[in-house]
Design goal:
Number of helices: 9
Largest sheet: 7 strands, mixed
Low-confidence stretches: none
Number of strands: 7
Order of helices and strands: EHHHHEHEEHEHEHEH
CATH superfamily of the domain at 2-13 and 69-112 and 129-198: HAD superfamily/HAD-like
Mean pLDDT: 94
CATH topology of the domain at 2-13 and 69-112 and 129-198: Rossmann fold
Radius of gyration: 17 Å
Helix content: 40-55%
Shape: globular
Strand order of the largest sheet: 4-3-2-1-5-6-7
Distance between the termini: 11 Å
Strand content: 15-25%
Length: about 200
Amino acid sequence: MYITCLDLEGVLVPEIWIAFSEATGIPELKRTTRDEPDYDKLMRFRLDILKEHGLGLKEIQDVIATIDPLPGAKEFLDSLREIGQVLIISDTFAEFAQPLMKKLGWPTIFCNSLEVAENGEITGIKMRVEKSKLTTVRALQSIGFDTIASGDSYNDLDMILASKAGFLFRSTEQIKKDYPQLGAFEEYDDLLEAIKKAMV
């Protein structure tokens, strides 16, 4: 039995931090897991910048409320869910993801959570489990699922490489060059076809 594991940002919805960077005019917040493979380091960097500018959860949620899924993402997800189980595995946070899940038709997502002070300041992050994408894929495999995985960034590579089939979607030229063995797609229809073939 197959279960398809998808990254969220860059695959189904725009990058939240890039949208927030553009809304606030803080260019440093454009940095994502495409640029920085060490997620803990990236989040410490982000939280320091938020503190420096006096920005908290409410300001980020206000921007997220304006974000829509990428064109074609919901239709892709609906088609994928018709042929098998789908799980979104993301390094984002439940406090960020909920409005986006509503717009995507409430798919299942495994993500992390934030530590937030009473004044709305984000003081820390609570990771669900270490190496959450790889750990989740391995756990699914341990209970009898074959996994198919797709993502766009460095933090997706572990789950992609550990799966029975794995694909890059709208990834960077550098990642595609470094992992030539992985199918790389730019359009949802092509990714959907590749996933269907992998299930045969």
